[in-house]
């Protein structure tokens, strides 16, 4: 429910990436003969991919995924999930973070980089964006998802924590106090600037979890077609329709920037 918009955008973007089959690949001969064939698998890196919610699903589409995460427990859960899904041959788990990606991967070796919920925690977000760019082949895409500072101001105010809302509004990092578990949040323009200054071209910006965090959980976490869950399909449609509208994505819990590395 809460990642449906993000999944749809990323999946559609991956479908636009074209790769030629390697020499000797049977698909190379078919392409030369003008015959259709299955798409060439993409090499995707999911930084901070944790237990593999995205990675295993992407492997199910035929892609090769490397998940880099600092938590050994999360990576163990990822490997179990991949095995259960029959995708263990397509999913690689590596302990590390955005600052160590080049210890395990060559620059320019990937078709797509997912960086979801990571920039809030890294020491240098600008360097993190440059690392993501450095992994990409020309024509590749990068997907960045980060906490939205406007949303936390609204959330703290609606929760009755007005002083904390005011603190988050004025804090350069969008934090509501010393006990805030998130080191930083981003406004839309600041996030766009980070991505563009890394040498990437922004293709689209979306708001993620605009309404999903406001609707009571009881209306979401039940099977479709029973009771209030009849509203779930409408809620998904509402999230998708509003995600690209500036006036609504300003309220989203997270901001998503889809960017690409231009062809040489």
From TrEMBL:
GO process terms (BP): methylation
Domain of life: Bacteria
Methyltransferase type domain boundaries: 45-143
Keyword annotations: Methyltransferase, Transferase
Matches recorded under Gene3D superfamilies: Vaccinia Virus protein VP39
Pfam families assigned: Methyltransf_11 (PF08241)
GO molecular function: S-adenosylmethionine-dependent methyltransferase activity
The protein, known as: Methyltransferase domain-containing protein
């Amino acid at each position: 429910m809460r990642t449906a918009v993000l999944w749809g955008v990323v999946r559609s973007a991956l479908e636009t990436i074209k790769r030629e089959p390697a020499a000797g690949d049977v698909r190379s001969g078919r392409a030369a003969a003008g015959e259709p064939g299955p798409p060439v698998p993409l090499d995707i890196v999911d930084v901070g991919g944790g237990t593999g919610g995205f990675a295993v699903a992407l492997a199910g589409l035929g892609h090769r995924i490397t998940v880099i995460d600092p938590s050994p427990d999360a990576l163990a859960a990822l490997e179990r999930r991949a095995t259960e899904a029959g995708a263990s041959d397509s999913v690689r788990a590596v302990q590390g973070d955005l600052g160590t990606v080049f210890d395990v991967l060559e620059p320019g070796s990937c078709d797509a980089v997912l960086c979801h919920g990571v920039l809030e925690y890294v020491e240098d977000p600008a360097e993190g964006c440059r690392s993501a760019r450095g992994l990409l082949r020309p024509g590749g895409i990068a997907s960045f998802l980060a906490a939205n500072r406007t949303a936390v101001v609204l959330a703290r105010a609606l929760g009755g924590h007005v002083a904390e809302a005011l603190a988050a509004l004025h804090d350069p990092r969008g934090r509501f106090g010393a006990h805030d578990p998130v080191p930083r949040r981003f406004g839309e323009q600041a996030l766009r600037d980070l991505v563009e200054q890394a040498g990437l071209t922004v293709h689209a910006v979306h708001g993620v979890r605009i309404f999903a965090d406001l609707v009571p959980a009881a209306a979401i976490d039940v099977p479709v077609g029973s009771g209030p869950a009849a509203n779930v399909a409408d809620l998904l449609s509402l999230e998708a329709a509003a995600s690209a509208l500036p006036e609504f994505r300003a309220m989203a819990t997270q901001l998503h920037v889809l960017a690409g590395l231009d062809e040489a």
